[in-house]
Design brief:
This protein is α/β, with parallel strands linked by helices. It contains 19 helices and 12 strands.
């Protein structure tokens, strides 16, 4: 509930609509409460006394009251929708902004599928309840209290029926809340799992087909889908008790009113119009309570969603810059690791990196080699501060990266990853992603260095070619070259290529390296690679094994001094890896 109250702040910009909606609902409720009185007047003063004028005039007044009530209800609906939609849009925007501000460690734990659910389904649940609160939650208590007062004024003795019925209704409502709230939390958790399966399969559908795993993935999806369905059924089964119980209370109330009211009519202690009016007020009061029970079910689900949204909003980025963080930073590119150790989580028994120490001078090219899982990507991820070191220090030009504003730091570091992520839009827009103001000439120049210009020019639309979702209409090598051009366009002082030419053939890779060597302003370059051909010309080669640097030096030195490097070199030479490659 605390999370629900916290989310109320997102309604503040739409306070006018949030106030007008309930006020207009008050008008509608007032008109609804007048109707039974007017019916009583028609029956007791018009029909019973054969007074046609009373019947006609009161009937016309009922029509006018109904029209006024309809206007109030329509106005309430319009303003409630405006406020709720605005609330939802602002909440989604804030949530998305929060996700963007989170560190890699936060995102690793929250997972993409869960975040998608929170940004879509969870926000929709809360938004719908806000709209209902502005309408139903105002109407229900007003109509309930008003009906009780009017029923008591109409027949105090019959009003004692409420003393019997109210405890029954309240018991049902409390029982519903207690049972459904935790169940709806489980529903959203199952939806998380379902979204994760769908996202993985849609993103990796080509891999699924390539390995003929469609049947297994379908079974995996069905398991997640069935669990989601079963959890929903459990909730519905629990909530299904509410409606029959409430209807039982309503019907008992009507039967009781007709029974005892009929006796009073026969005795002459109550008029027929009064009995009709009382039954109308009784129905309005009990139906209001019925609406409360239905709303409670929706609120229970929304409350569970609000808790999940609050979990994201309350997440604090693991990487915090000091209050006096450096916001202007123009490094030359000298990078130093000083006795660096790193764990992804503090409770991990063994660090991913252990006592890493080395220095890279401006303009040097450093290659990082090692087996899968040796810590190569973890090491280069510490330079732009995707993660913080667990011990030691990483500095650029003598400045600890933890004391530099993240935006200022990453504005001077270009990164191209093995999995080249492209966005919907044109190739030009993707290359300009880190520097939207770049000129066409600068875009073309960096594309030439990345050996992307030729294949881009062959497209009918050239640089205005639309890139499909995740670059689906480009080959792996083409995507990697666009990603390298994107990293180069920001004119980085430090360029990180994390196995970013793995899908490129050796000849093209050689041309990329030659272009980087001769083109533009020199920069410090970190190259993570699997192929020896990628690192032959590096100023320094670091060999990682189990998170430790086991050898460092130039190619010629390592051939004689490092058995691990010599083994990698000879193995790849034997298999012709220096002369073959992918697209």
């Amino acid at each position: 509930m605390q999370a629900s109250r916290r989310l109320a702040v997102f309604l503040k910009p739409f306070w006018r609509s949030a106030i007008l909606a309930p006020l207009l609902m008050v008008l509608e409720v007032a008109m609804d409460l007048l109707q039974p009185r007017l019916v009583q007047r028609i029956v007791d003063s018009g029909i019973a006394r054969s007074d046609v004028a009373v019947v006609v005039n009161t009937g016309l007044l009922m029509v006018a009251v109904a029209v006024i009530g309809m206007a109030g209800g329509m106005g309430c609906a319009i303003f409630a929708v405006f406020a709720a939609q605005g609330f939802g849009a602002k909440l989604r925007g804030t949530l998305f902004g929060k996700v963007q501000s989170l560190s890699f460690g936060n995102l690793d734990r929250l997972e993409t599928g869960k975040l998608v659910t929170r940004l879509t389904s969870d926000v929709a649940q809360v938004q719908d309840v806000v709209m209902m609160l502005l309408r139903v939650m105002v109407r229900v208590p007003l109509l309930l209290v008003g009906s009780l007062i009017m029923a008591f004024l109409t027949s105090p003795r019959l009003a004692l029926l409420f003393v019997i019925l109210t405890p029954i209704v309240l018991f049902v409502i409390v029982w519903t809340i207690g049972r459904t709230f935790p169940l709806y939390g489980n529903v959203q958790a199952r939806l998380d799992a379902l979204n994760t399966v769908m996202q993985e399969n849609l993103a990796g559908v080509r891999v699924v087909k390539a390995f003929a795993r469609a049947a297994e993935e379908l079974r995996r999806f069905r398991r997640a889908n069935d669990e989601f369905m079963d959890q929903n059924i459990a909730v519905v089964r629990t909530a299904a008790v509410t409606m029959p119980a409430m209807m039982l209370a309503v019907n008992l109330g009507v039967v009781g009113a007709l029974w005892f009211g009929g006796v009073e009519v026969n005795r002459g202690e109550l008029e027929v119009g009064q009995l009709i009016a009382f039954i109308n007020y009784l129905m309005q009061a009990l139906v209001s309570l019925l609406s409360v029970s239905m709303l409670i079910v929706r609120i229970s689900r929304a409350a569970a969603s609000a808790e999940r949204i609050g979990e994201v909003l309350d997440s604090k980025p693991e990487l915090q810059a000091p209050s006096d963080a450096l916001v202007r930073f123009a490094p030359q590119g000298r990078v130093r690791f000083e006795d660096v150790s790193f764990r992804y989580r503090g409770d991990e028994p063994d660090p991913v990196l252990k006592s890493i120490t080395f220095t890279v001078e401006p303009g040097e090219t450093v290659a990082v080699l090692g087996a899968t899982g040796s810590g190569k990507s973890s090491l280069i991820g510490l330079i732009p501060r995707f993660y913080d070191v667990s011990a030691g220090r990483v500095s650029i030009d003598g400045v600890d990266v933890r004391t530099i504003d993240e935006t200022a730091l990453r504005a001077r570091i270009g990164v191209a990853l093995q999995e080249a992520v492209l966005f919907s839009g044109t190739i030009r827009e993707n290359i300009r992603y880190g520097r939207p103001e770049a000129t066409d000439a600068e875009v073309i120049a960096t594309a030439k260095v990345a050996q992307a210009h030729d294949f881009i020019s062959r497209f009918p639309d050239g640089y205005d070619t639309i890139v499909g979702q995740r670059g689906v209409n480009l080959s792996g090598g083409q995507k990697q070259r666009v990603a390298i051009a994107r990293a180069l366009l920001i004119d980085p002082a430090i360029l990180i290529l994390d196995d970013s030419t793995s899908a490129v053939d050796v000849e093209t890779e050689a041309r990329i390296q030659a272009g980087l060597a001769r083109g533009g302003k020199p920069h410090t370059r970190f190259v993570v690679a699997q192929r020896i051909s990628t690192v032959l010309g590096a100023d320094k080669i670091l060999i990682l094994d189990d998170g430790e640097i086991v050898a460092a030096g130039r190619h010629e030195d390592l051939l004689t001094a490092s058995p691990i490097y010599r083994e990698i070199y000879e193995s790849q030479m034997e298999h012709g890896a220096l002369s073959h490659g992918g697209d």
